[in-house]
Design brief:
InterPro entries: AMMECR1, AMMECR1_dom_sf, AMMECR1_domain, AMMECR1_N, AmmeMemoSam_A, Xdiol_dOase_suB. The protein is α+β, with helices and mostly antiparallel strands. Helices cover about 35% and strands about 25% of the residues. The chain is built from 14 helices and 18 strands. Helix 11 packs across helix 13. It is globular and about 75 Å long.
Length: about 450
Amino acid sequence: MSIISTFIVPHPPLIIPKIGRGQEMKIEKTIKSYDNIAKKIAEIQPETIVIISPHSVMYSDYIHISPGKKASGNFREFGETEIKLEVNYDEEFANKLAQLSEEEEIHAGTLGEKNKSLDHGTMVPLFFVDKYYKDYNIVRISISRLSFIEHYNFGKCISKIADELNKKVIVIASGDLSHMLREEGPYGFTEEGPIFDRETTEALSRGDFMRLLTFDEDFCEIAAECGLRSFIIMAGALDGKSVKSKLLSYEGPYGVGYSVASFDVIGIDDNRHFDKIYNKIEEERLNLIIEKEDEYVRLARNSLESYINDKKIIEKTDKLPNEMLTNKSGVFVSLKLNGQLRGCIGTISPTTNSVADEIIQNAISSGLEDPRFNPVNKNELRKLEYSVDVLGVAEAIESINELDVKKYGVIVTKGKKKGLLLPNLEGVNSVEEQVSISLKKAGISSNESYQLERFEVVRHK
C-alpha cells in the first residue's frame, strides 16, 4: 500500500450550512464535488489522511508538521459554536516525515507549534469526510514561504514515508485559488486573478504539475492565491507516478476561486519526475545568466564562491574596468535562490578604497552575514543569481512627492536610526510602500518626524 489518491479542495467555512445559512447554495457544484470525493475516500478507507493547509502553523522558512497524539477545533470564529472536530494524529508517520526531511536537508519538522487547535483549512475538508468515513488518523502539514521546488521535494518525502510504512494513504491539498476575482468581492479585483485561476484549473485538469512549479511568485502574490504551495506539496507526493486527473468543479461567485480535483494513482511514469525537469530547465537558465554577467556581477560571484570554497578573499586585479578600480561608492549585493531573496547586504556610502573592494566585501557579507538567512552553503552557490547596485550620491528631499519607486532609492533617518530601500524592487509598487518598508527597517514609527533622501543606482545583473 502507499498513496492511493490525492485531492484538491477549497476551504470556505460558509460551505457548511450552519455557517453559510443559505449562502452555500451559490456554490452547489463545489458542494456536490466535495460530497463525491468524500464518498470516494470512504470507499478507499485510508488508514492515514495527509492534509496540507495554508492556515495551519506557518513559518516563512519552515514547513510545519503538527506533533502529538490528537487535536481538536471548532468554528467559533465563524459564528458557529456547535460543530466540533477531534482527530487522532498518525504520530509514527509525522515523526518519520520530520526525520526524513532533516536527512534530505529540507527545512521541515514538528517544532514550534503553540496553538494546537485545528484550523479551518483542515476542518472544512474533514467535515465532509466525516459525513461518510471516520476510521482514519491524520498528518497535518502547513505551507511556508520556501520556494516552490522545496515544497515539491517535501511532497516526495511524504510519498517515501507512505511506502516505508506500507499504509493506505490519501493526500488532501486544502486551498482556495485567487481571492481577487470580482470588484464586489471581499478582496476586490485584479486581472491576474482570473488568469491565475484559468491557468491553474487547466493544469490540474491535465495533471500538468510542471505548470504549478513555473508560476511567477510576484504574479501569484498579485492574484492573492491561497493554495498553490499546498497543491505543489501534493504534486511532489505524486512524483514519478502516473495519475488519472479529473477537475470536478470550479466556481468563484464570491470573488474567491474554489476548485475541486482528484488524482488517482494508476502506475509508475518516469517522465513525471517534475523536480528533475524543473532543475534541468533552471540549470540551463542559470548557465545563460552566468555567461552574460558583467564584470561587477562576476566579481561578486567570484568573491563569495572563493570565500566559501577556499576561505580566501580574492584580490582585485588591474584587468577590471578603470571605474571599478578608481571610483568609490556605496554598493549593495543581492542574492536570489529559486526566485527568492537569499541575502542582501550593502553600504550606503563607500567604506573601502574602490567600488571593486566594496563589491568583494559586500558579496561575502550578503552570503554569510545577512541576519535574516542562514549562511549560503556550497551546494547553493551555482544556483544563486546576483545583482550589484552601485549607489549614486544621496540628496535630501522634502516629501515623498519627489520620489519615484522605479528610479530612486530612499533613505529615512531619525537621529542614529537609518533605513534604506533600493529602487525598482519586485513587489514594491508605490513610494508609500517604499518609505513604509524603509521606516520599519530603521525602527522608526511613521508617526515620528524623519528626514528623507533619495538616490539613484546603476544596477548590474
